[in-house]
Amino acid sequence: MPKLPVGVVSAPRRRRPPVRPPLGGALRRLAERTRGGQFLRLRGRFRGRRGLLAFLAVMGPGLIAGIAGNDAGGVTTYSVIGAQTGLGLLWLFPVTIVILAIVQEMAARLGVVTGQGLSDLIRDRFGVRWTVFAMLVLLVANIANTVAQFSGAAAALEIFGVPRLLTVPLTAAAIWALVLFASYRTVERVFLSVAVVFLTYVASAVLAHPDWGAVGRAFVTPSLDLAPATLLLVVAFVGTTITPYMQFYLQSAVAEKVIGEEELALERADAIGGAVWTNLIAIFIVIATASTIHAAGGSIETAADAALGLEPVAGSLATSLFGLGLFGASVLAATIMPISTAFVICEAFGWESGVGKPFRDAPTFFGIYTFVLALGALVVLLPGLDPVPVILASQNLQGLLLPIVLVFMVLLVNDARLMGRHRNGRRLNMLAWSAVGLVVVLDLVLLGTSALGAFGVSLT
């Protein structure tokens, strides 16, 4: 597919034709609305108008990316934070809202102005070697995320007495077969419906009757325990809120939607809205678990423990409701994560990709998909691994790998040849590099305290 050479500025800029995403069923229709389907037709019909209709014409990628953050890894991490630290880390949310808003706005702007996905731009701007490095980072991060999803599925069904050795292989085999040999439209509908259960955390947080004065003070009174266990939670918190996967997805979705530069402000609003949405849901999860589990002096060791955060709204059904929702969100993410990984990597190197293609026409695509899915399942089956710690560890790895992706994004968005007048200004650069710096410092503090702890030195 022809690419616009780096350094060439044309008027008007030539764009690649929209590429149908490798999804099916409900997710395909949702993706089509953000990539040139119904919403694009509305955009053409109402071009030049302002207000709600114009926003509806471009909305989608940012909100979907935000919703994707509340998967098994996100819900588990936020639940553990609330159970272990109470309201003590709520002050981090205003920080992560700003950081995620900055990052998603840059991804959206890159997609609108260049018409290319992040993997495409990395290859065109930095060459094959850096592209290989970036794709390795994405591959490791997404494998870790796939491990988290299978861990979530295993933990969810263990609530009902189903052993992990049965849940994980059957789930992995079913996902692989559905993607390769059948339509999974109905399955997607069910999983998307079940995942909505996590909205009950909003009601649960309110019905738990927390001290709202204490909640408000927690947002504006920063405090941080330098114990390695707390720092691990903080890194996991950042890693699950701002994942590398979300940025690759968001920019590709915006590019494929072919949004005009005159609508850039509306797409920015969509991206920032997604950042606010995912953090708001996370805030209510922390408040709910802090007001129930932490207040009772409990902790989260299993998914059944995490389900206690839903008791104010679900009562005796809390465990079953949480288990069903966690399983649905986990399997949905475990279905999409390997597909998206294969799609982005193949896009970066120009390899044939697509779920609807025969295996012989896209062997690399299906090979990467199978590798990510199988490895994610096999790791969870290793003896002695507990699902909740595995999920937290995967989110820690996301946090450690995140700065690499952010550096690529900031360098690209500052490239005048690519972005022209839409490149970062001084203020945006200060915010962007500050966000990168905060994540790097956090990772370095974690690594430093962990190293000191290995030698028996404690900072607390």
Question: How is the topology of this model organized?
Answer:
Layout: H1 25-33, H2 38-45, H3 52-58, H4 61-68, H5 72-85, H6 92-114, H7 118-126, H8 128-158, H9 164-181, H10 185-195, H11 200-207, H12 212-220, H13 228-241, H14 244-257, H15 264-294, H16 303-306, H17 311-314, H18 318-349, H19 363-380, H20 387-413, H21 416-419, H22 426-454
Helix pairs in contact: 2-3, 4-14, 4-15, 5-13, 5-15, 5-20, 6-14, 6-15, 6-20, 6-22, 7-8, 7-18, 8-9, 8-18, 8-19, 8-20, 9-19, 10-18, 11-15, 13-20, 13-22, 18-19, 20-22
Write structural notes for this entry.
The chain has 460 residues and is mainly α. The chain has one domain (25-213, 232-398): Amino acid/polyamine transporter I, CATH 1.20.1740. Helix content is 72%, strand content 0%. The protein has helices at residues 25-33, 38-45, 52-58, 61-68, 72-85, 92-114, 118-126, 128-158, 164-181, 185-195, 200-207, 212-220, 228-241, 244-257, 264-294, 303-306, 311-314, 318-349, 363-380, 387-413, 416-419, 426-454. 51% of the residues are buried. Mean pLDDT is 76; it is low at 1-49.
What is the C-alpha radius of gyration, as a whole number of Å? Answer: 21 Å
Shape: globular
Strand content: under 5%
Q: What's the structural domain tally?
A: 1
Distance between the termini: 57 Å
Name of the top-level CATH class: Mainly Alpha
User: Any low-confidence stretches, pLDDT <50, length ≥5?
Assistant: 1-49
